[in-house]
Amino acid sequence: MTIRKILQKSDGSKTMTAEQNHIMxxxxxxxxxxxxxxxxxALRYKNPDLIITxxxxxxxxxxxxxxxxxxxxxxxxxxxxxxxxxxxxxxAFDLFSHKIASGRPDLLILIDYPGFNLKAAARxxxxxxxxxxxxxxxxxxxxxxxxxxxxxxxxxxxLIFPFEEAIFRKEKIPATxxxxxxxxxxxxxxNYFHEKSEVLCEKSESQRGVSTVxxxxxxxxxxxxxxxxxxxxxSGRLINxxxxxxxxxxxxxxxxxxxxxxQICFHDNEKxxxxxxxxxxxxxxxxVSAASTINLxxxxxxxxxxxxxxxxxxxxxxxxxxxxxxxxxIAASGTVTLEAAIFGVxxxxxxxxxxxxxxxxxxxxxxxxxGLPNIIAGYSIVPELLQNDAVPEKIANKVLSIISPETLAHxxxxxxxxxxxxxxxxxxxxxxxxxxxxxxx
Length: 441
What we know:
Largest sheet: 7 strands, parallel
Structural class: alpha/beta
Strand order of the largest sheet: 5-4-3-6-7-8-9
Number of domains: 2
Shape: globular
CATH superfamily of the largest domain: Glycogen Phosphorylase B
Number of strands: 18
Number of helices: 19
Strand content: 15-25%
CATH class of the largest domain: Alpha Beta
C-alpha cells in the first residue's frame, strides 16, 4: 500500500504531499538477516522514504526495518528440529498473514528460508501483492518440485549462483543472476585475505615451525550447538593430545611430533625436512566461534566440559575474526563455509542432524557434496564428514592429514577460485534495482 507523506513547508504549513512506498521483507535465519540488512541499505539509497516492515534480526532492525517478529525463534534446520518449533513458526506466519492483508505492501521480498517463504509467497499471491524472491530455494540440490510453486507464486527471482539461471530459464521463470551477497559483504576483507592467502601459498616453506591455529565454527542454530560443538571440542582435544603427547627427538635433538599418519620434524637452522616427515608444526591452538544468535549459557556449559586444559579460546561476533587468525577450520556445513572459501581459508566440513532428517536428506538430495565450496567448484576441494563420519576420531584424523603447510597452501589456491564463480560486487544493489522496478510497474 502506498502511503502519502505530509511534508512541511518552510513557513510551517503542511499542504505538500509525497508518496511513500511500503516494502515487506521476510528473512528467517541469521544469514538472511545479514543479506536483508545490506538489501535495506541499497533500497534506502534509492528511496530514503521507503517504509520497510517484516521479519528479521538485529541487523535488519539496525537498518531501520520495523519488525513484527524476530528471527531468534525461527532459525532451525531439519525435519525434527522444525517440528519442535512448529508453534512459534505458526505464530509468525499467522502474524505475517495479518500484517500483509492489513498493510498491503507494494512489494514482498523473500530471503531464503523456503519452508516458510514459499507459503508466504502463496499468501501474497492471494491478495495480489507482487513477490521478489532473493536467494531462492536450492532446487538444484533437492525438492526440485518447488520450481512449480516458484513459477506460480513468485513474480521475479534474484539468483545468487550463476548455474541457477539455466534452471529457471528452462522453467520460464523470470529471473536475474545478481551475484552472491557475501562477495558484497566481505569485499574489503576479501582483498586482504586473498593477498594473505597468495603470500601463504608462495611462502609455505617459511611457515613451517609456526604454531597452527585451528578455528571451530559449530553454527548459529541451537540444534547445531547441541549436535556439533561437543564433537568439535573433543576432536580438538584429540588433535592437541596427538601433537603434544607424541613429541620425540630427532638425531640432532630437535623435537618431532608424530601421529598415526605422519611425523613432524624441525630443523630451524637448516630449514629442511628430515626423514621423519614433511610437517614442522610445533604446536596447535584452537579458537571457537560463538554466534550472536546462540544461547551463550548453553554454549559455555558445553565448553566447560571439554576445556579443562584451557586450550579453547572463544571469539564472539563475525566469523571474519576467526578467519583472520586461523590456518584451518572445522566448520558446520552452511553459509559460513562459503564465507571461509571466499577468504581462502582451508577447512574440514562436518554436519550431524537427527537420524530422520539425515535419512530423508539422503533420499532426496541428488548432488554429490553438501559443502558449498565443493558444490560451486564441482569437485572436492575440502573434506566433508557427515553424520556417522562426523565423530571426533575421524575429524581429528582428517585434520591431521591436511595440516601440513604444503597441503594447506594447495587448498588455498583452489579456494581462491571460488569468488570468480560468484560474480562481482553489487548483489544487493542489483536486487534493489529490480525491487524498485517492480514497484514502479
